[in-house]
């Protein structure tokens, strides 16, 4: 508006000058110029004042915007704080139904129903648990068990270093830490990791995990140990020594170390050593050492797994059942997945295990499994396999299964 007024004043000056009947004198013209200059100065002063006012209004508006943004941030934080408990809670699980038609008998069993519960306290600290019902029905005289397989706090120091405290899976083997039914071939878990390692195996303790680079990692675990019977048919059997952290005897601890190495894409190698200071928790003072190595290779649809595990028990006390001073097993399993989404898979497995390996007269249990998986979705699977035992075993037949995880 002020600019328009200024232009109008200058135009009026020009019109007046051109419309005069006689040419004004220099003095009259100078007076007109001075008068117009005053008008121009006044208009410029008014323009500057309005610019100053406009700037003040702009600053006030900017301050109001900042205040509104701060208010929005406060409300957003409040909303996030109220919604965090829900966002931080994690839930999952898995389950598997089996039908076994073997020489030892026919059976249908909902083998496992498992729920995962977790909670993220913050970006670095979380809680994780695994609650399991085995064989569908638990109680006095019932076949099932209710078990707490995992319940630990995990703290992340940085992207490559973390520690755990609580009930955790022992870092050993292939299946012990990853055993959801959609992740492996065969209806039943393999005999070696069941009877020698023995999966699923959990203890109470503190763990440390370090990933040095994209190839090498280290896991350490100081925990409660096994407590095997010292007499009877199950004396010194490794699987019978699991205490499952249920009022477990803890006079002697276990020390576990695992090194992980991924030399090339698709190939995973791992080796675990564990020392049990006393496998009988004070009854006979029997130290024991476990050594286990495994390899997993995946290239396209082709897969290959292999594992070897061996226990050495201190036999100085001369009270160990004949042969059980050494217990060992191994298996090799090639497989191939095909189909548009690799939803079909076939496998074969050759396994050998012996819980009396120190006895030259004890026969190894040899088993051959062949079968296929069909993944209806990436985490729901239908399974079939045929098993044939020889030497130390004679339980032949076929198995059907369905499993899921989420």
TrEMBL record:
Record's keyword terms, sorted: Coiled coil, Signal
Signal peptide: 1-19
Keyword check for Nucleus: no
Superkingdom of origin organism: Bacteria
SUPFAM superfamilies, per the entry: Porins
Keyword GTP-binding in annotation: no
This protein's name: Phosphate-selective porin O/P
């Amino acid at each position: 508006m002020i600019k328009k007024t200024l232009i109008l004043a200058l135009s009026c000056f020009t019109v007046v000058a051109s419309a005069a009947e006689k040419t004004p004198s220099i003095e009259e013209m100078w007076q007109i110029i001075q008068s117009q200059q005053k008008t121009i100065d006044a208009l410029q002063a008014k323009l500057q004042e309005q610019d100053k006012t406009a700037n003040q209004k702009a600053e006030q508006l900017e301050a109001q915007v900042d205040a509104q943004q701060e208010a929005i941030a406060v409300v957003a934080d409040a909303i996030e704080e109220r919604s965090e408990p829900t966002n931080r809670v994690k839930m999952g699980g898995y389950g598997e139904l089996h039908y076994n038609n073997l020489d030892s008998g026919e059976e249908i069993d909902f083998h496992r129903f498992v729920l995962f519960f977790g909670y993220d306290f913050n970006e670095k600290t979380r809680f994780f648990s695994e609650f399991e019902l085995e064989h569908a029905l638990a109680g006095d005289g019932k076949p099932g068990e209710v078990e707490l397989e995992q319940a630990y706090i995990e703290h992340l120091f940085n992207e490559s270093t973390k520690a755990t405290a609580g009930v955790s899976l022992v870092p050993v083997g292939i299946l012990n830490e990853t055993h959801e039914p959609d992740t492996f071939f065969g209806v039943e878990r393999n005999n070696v990791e069941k009877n020698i390692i023995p999966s699923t195996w959990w203890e109470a303790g503190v763990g440390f995990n370090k990933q040095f680079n994209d190839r090498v990692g280290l896991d350490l675990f100081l925990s409660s140990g096994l407590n095997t019977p010292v007499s009877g048919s199950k004396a010194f059997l490794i699987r019978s020594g699991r205490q499952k952290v249920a009022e477990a005897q803890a006079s002697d601890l276990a020390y576990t170390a695992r090194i992980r190495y991924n030399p090339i894409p698709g190939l995973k190698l791992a080796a675990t050593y564990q020392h049990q200071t006393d496998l009988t928790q004070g009854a006979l003072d029997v130290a024991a050492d476990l050594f286990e190595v495994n390899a997993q290779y995946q290239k396209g649809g082709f897969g290959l797994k292999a594992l070897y595990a061996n226990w050495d028990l201190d036999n100085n006390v001369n009270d160990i059942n004949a042969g059980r001073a050494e217990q060992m097993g191994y298996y090799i399993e090639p497989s191939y997945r095909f189909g548009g989404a690799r939803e079909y898979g076939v496998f074969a497995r050759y396994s050998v295990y012996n819980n009396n390996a120190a006895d030259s007269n004890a026969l190894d249990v040899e088993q051959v499994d062949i079968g296929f998986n069909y993944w209806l979705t990436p985490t729901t699977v239908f399974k079939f396999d045929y098993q044939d035992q020889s030497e130390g075993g004679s339980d032949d037949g076929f198995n059907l299964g369905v499993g899921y995880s989420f």
